[in-house]
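Fig. S4 source data, part A: sequence.
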Amino acid sequence: MTLVLGIDTGGTYTDAIILRDEIDVIASAKSLTTRHDLAIGIGAAVQEVLFQSGIAPLEIAMASLSTTLATNALVEGQGERVALVYIGFRAGDLDRHGLGDALRGDPFLEMDGGHSYAGSEVAPFDDARLNDWLAGLDGVSAYAVASQFATRNPAHEKRAADLIRSWTSRPVSVSYQLSAKLNGPKRALTAVLNARLIGMIDRLIGRARDTLRNLGIDAPLMVVRGDGALISEDKAREKPIETILSGPAASIVGAYWMTGAKNALISDIGGTTTDIALLRDGRPMIDPQGAQVGPYRTMVEAVATRTTGLGGDSEVHFVSEGLAGGVTLGPKRVLPVSLAAMENSAVIHATLDAQLKNALPGEYDGRFVRKMPVHDAGGLAERDAALFAKLSLDIQPMNTVIKSRLEAQALIRLVGRGLAQISALTPSDASHFLGYINVWDCDAATKALQLFGRRRNGAGTLLGQDAKNMAQMIVNQLTDQTSTALLEAAFFEEDTDFSNTPQTLANHPLMQQGLTGHKGLVRIETGLNVPVVGLGASASSYYPAVGERLNCQMILPEHAGVANAIGAVVGRISIRASGIVTSPCDGVFRLHLEDGPEDFSQETAALLRLEYVLREKAISDAKNSGAEDLQVTVHNDIRKANIEASEMFLEATITVTVIGRPRITTL
């Protein structure tokens, strides 16, 4: 009998399951994710499944971790302060592919250097300039390095990384190690996002490992990658960007394990996001363009998931336009008022009661703020630092802290850095009032709903007549936004070449009329033609209405609330290594390797040499990741052209994939 432990750390809950022989879930548990110290939430969930199952800690043969923290951080624009060294690119490249937005004012250095397409040095690397720049920096948690055509010759990226490490001892995210593909600005963006996540994921994995050891579990620890495969904890620390969409990938693997569905849309609602992906012939689709999370298109291979900032803890916004008004949800996550009241009951209730007694609604009614315990708050602007000093680790009414628009803008920046947290009205609060959930403070949720409903629409009438009306409005909006997101995902995956965008089609009046079964002179019927597998702790509360809205089968598996944790332990280790051979001139076949280019006079010799190097690397990485029973496949993509009746070699890409079972401990 083999017993494995799956853990998923989400924005709101941390889940744990114990699986026996990859057949039976013998115990599952949830605890609140404790962002200030992730070990508390992880420990509570793991202790509970051990208690439920009666399993001794030493009987656990392997533990595996999936997480939505990296995905959530990118969707919410959070992460630590980083610095970018940008080598050999043209003016204006910084603003392409969202790189300038991703930096968010963090420092960067543009340098001469880089290489040509053929791997030759374009300009020498300037050690002195980089050293001078590094000497003037502070408050940087990690560095990103990207050089022009580094996938053809990474010498300048390696040189910059060596200098940064010698100066700072900080982690360095190097673009050529994250992707073997061309498109330097996009690789630079991926390196920046990777650097921003390093500290967060390192602390998560470290605290998870410490917690397991303290509980007596000394089994190998794996982490779910964004394509659903498993990697070792060391690899995940080195390349945390590969864990974006880890949670969604795990949920897809878990959904297939639970339902056996061959063709379906998977919709996983968490506290922060809703992740939608397609199962086709029992396999998740891999995004050929690289994973996109929020506004960012990366070069990370991951499941083709559409991630929307919509979850149970999404912030509720008042829509003042139009006579009727209304609400919209997300994309930011906030702490539900009902949950905040569990930790700070006296402050929350006293504030809500006082605000309800006021004759007129206030701008910050039902909103609270607190400082987050952080490891590094360096590099703040003067106004941001002043506001940060005013915040307390204990929750405070926002109207006692924010006194101006400038301070409100500073708070947004602090939240973006993960230095502050806002508490406000969410769908989770509405669900507590409606009786869908009963775990937090329903009285606080009721008061927050009453306060929010006192806003007036364009006609001058109250937005919500009472707490029930307000709560139902919020849940209806979640149903509408989820349904639209599923329709957009379905149109995006359609093989038919529509002239309109998926967003336009999903919101088209004919589509919306068809969902209600319009029958006039024209009969219109629309909906999804595949089932939806609903996952997440709140799926059973929200998704039956979504199935009715979309006129499709809604599958809610028995263990839908812990699908990610299940997917974390039923995956396989998969390592890929890719390389390229080019022909810079007639009769020369050039391998582009990490140690620099190698030239051959024969095509066959060059291809065999590259396959050997990649095979050795992939097998070594797989073994270091804890894989056994290895299966190796090689894919060759050789491009040639016929010119004047002669066949000319252009380039070849070789990809070696090694798949294996995770190594487990034996008693």
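Fig. S4 source data, part B ends here. The mean pLDDT is 89.
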